Amino acid sequence: MMLTRESNIDQERLTGLLAASAEMVFSVMLKEQPRAMTPASKADGDVLHDGIISFIGLAGEWSGTGSVLCSGAAALSLASRLLLIEAKAVDQEVLDAVGEITNMIFGNFKDCVESYFGQLSLSTPSVIYGRHVRARDLPSALTAIAAVECGGEPIELKVCLSPARKSTSGAGVLVSSRYNGLR
Predict the structure, then answer these.
(1) Which one of 3, 38, 137, 164 has the fewest beta carbons within 10 angstroms of its own beta carbon?
(2) Whole domain around residue 102: which residue ranges?
(3) Residue segments in the chain with a per-residue pLDDT below the cut of 50
């Protein structure tokens, strides 16, 4: 498939695409209409959080990370809706559900932005649960933060992207040709 490149994207458009990606996943997969909120986090990248942080990597001509931050209560609500169960405790099943929601949101986001950034691939999500978890993003060329309320709980979404560095060692060529075609 040949992608036609769009002109530059600004932070406002990137944030809108991130929010729209979350809204689509919540409305289709969770049968919930989220309400847009003002994000609590700032673009400086330092977050102290009680609850769940789910990360997913994006790689291609641009690379970076997408993340979903939510409370344990929000995770229980999301998992209950996704899995059609009544989740009572943040356990492996709930963490897996949050990881899957992260994958769906950023999979949709990836599809929305490939016309700007070229083809992108997603990693497997990593989900962290705890109290006083500190996360810090390294400086990036573009950062977008969006927040929604879903089931009465705030959920924050963040993406940080920068142009990928070209490998000068040749190892990148070996890796990419070995795994050519995998997403």
Answers:
(1) 38
(2) 11-166
(3) 1-3, 171-183
